[in-house]
Amino acid sequence: MSSSSNNESLIELLQTISTTCNRYVAICIFIFGVVGNMLNIFVLSQRCFRSNSCAWSFLVSSIANLISILFGLLTRIISGWAIDPTSYIGWICKIRAHVVFTTRTIALWLIVIATIDRWLLSSIDANRRRKSTLKNAQRCTTVIIILSILLYIQQLFCYEANLVNTSLKCNSRTAACLYLSNLSFAVITILIPLFLMSVFGLLTVLNVRQSQRRLQSLALRNTTAIAIRSSATTGEHPHGNLKRKADHSLLRMLLVQVLLMAILTLPLSIQNFYSFFSGENKSAIYEAVDYFSYNITDLIYFVSNGIPFYIYTLCGGHVFRKALHDLFELLKQKIVRHQACLLQK
C-alpha cells in the first residue's frame, strides 16, 4: 500500500514539474528563440553575408529553427494552461508532427552543409576551394528540404490524436510507426549530422593549422615575396580582407554551434533510444517517467533551435556584430523618418 502511494506521489510530482515547465520555461524559450532567429534572418540577409555560402546555410537554418519553434512550442505552452489542441484534433496533430520533425532535420543538416563548406574553403587544394560556392550551397539546401519532407511524410499517416493508454495523446498509432519515427529521428536527424559535423569540424581545424604551417614555411623561405603578396591581397583589396574576416568569423561561429548542438540535442536522441528499446508493456510509473524525460529533453532540444543568434553575436566577431549594428541603425533611421512624416501631417 505504501509503495503504491509513493508511486502515485511520484507520478503527480513529475506531472506537476512537466506542467510548470510548459507554462514558464517553454515561454522563455519561445520568446528568446523567436527574437533570436528573426534577428538572424535580418542580419544574415544583409549585403556582407548575401554571397557567402556558409552564411546562406545559417540563414535557411534560422528560418527552419523559427518554424520549428512556432509550430512546436506554441502547443506546448497551451498545454501548460489548457488542453493541448494536438491531443484531440487530428489534423493539427499530424501537421505539427510533420513540420517539427522536418524543420529540425533541415536545420541540423544545413549546419552539416556549412561545416563541409568551411572544410572545402580551408583546404589547400584549389579544386576543393572552388567547390565552396553559393550555388552549390543552394543546391544542397534544396535537396535537404525535399528529402526531409519525404523522410517524415509518414507522420501525416501514422500520427493520430485522442490515443488511449499512452502518455502522449498525439503520437504514432502503431508500434511499427512509433519505432520507425523514433529511430529515424534519433539516427538520421541527430546522430548522423552530429557525427558529420564533428568529423568535418576537426578536418577544418586541421586544414587551418596546415595552412598556417605552410605560410610560416613559405615566410621562412622568402619573406619579401610573402610580404608583397600579403600587401597585394590585403592592402589593395579591402573587400577581400573583409571577406576573409567574415570567413574566419563564420568558422568560429560554426565550431561553437556544433559543440552546443551536440550538448543540447543528444539527450532527446538518448531518450528516444531508451523509449524505443523499452518495449510496449509499461507500468504507470514508467509511463510517467518516460513522459517526463521526453518533455524535459524536448524542451532542451528547443533551446538548440533558439540559441544560434546568441552564438553568432558572441562568437561572430566584428563582422557579425557590425552587421547587427547596421541593422539597428537602419531600423532607427526608418522610425525617425516615419515620425517626421507624421509630424509634418
TrEMBL record:
InterPro entries: GPCR-Ligand_Int, GPCR_Rhodpsn, GPCR_Rhodpsn_7TM
Source organism: Rotaria socialis
GO MF term list: G protein-coupled receptor activity
Top-level taxon of origin: Eukaryota
Keyword Transmembrane helix attached: yes
Pfam families: 7tm_1 (PF00001)
Compartment annotation: Membrane
GO CC terms in record: membrane
Listed transmembrane segments: 24-44, 56-83, 95-116, 137-157, 183-206, 250-270, 299-320
Domain G-protein coupled receptors family 1 profile: from-to ranges: 36-312
Keywords of this entry: Membrane, Transmembrane, Transmembrane helix
Protein name: G-protein coupled receptors family 1 profile domain-containing protein
Record's keyword annotation contains Cell membrane: no
